[in-house]
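Pipeline run #58 for the internal structure catalog. This entry was flagged by the ingest filter as a single-chain record with no existing model, so it goes straight to prediction. Upstream metadata was stripped on purpose; only the residue string is passed forward. Reviewer on rotation: M.T. Logging verbosity set to normal.
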Amino acid sequence: MNMMESIFLLALLGFCAWFWFDTQHCQESTKLIAKQVCVELHLQLLDDTIALVRMRLKRKKNGKLSVQRTYQFEFSDGGDKRLQGTIIMHGISLEILELPGYMNRTISPV
């Protein structure tokens, strides 16, 4: 293995590690947002989990490219119904929050 291959593999490994940590950080932030919104609206975040359902690259208003992640979670108002909420994060910033039946689409500037 020559020097260029070693540098490339090291850079690739570094990128993968950064991406994994960035995704974990974003997921923790998203879960915190979901919990806070459920508490404010007197709802229950079911199963205490959120699920990543989509990931793509998207430009911010300033032109920088970043990762947009879409998460879904289930919540309830204490009844038997399981409702589905959606949170879209752009980088680690909230972009869209949807709680059908409880909150109209909330769009935050990114």
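catalog note: The chain has one domain: 23-107.
catalog note: The two ends are 43 Å apart (CA to CA).
status: ready for reviewer M.T.
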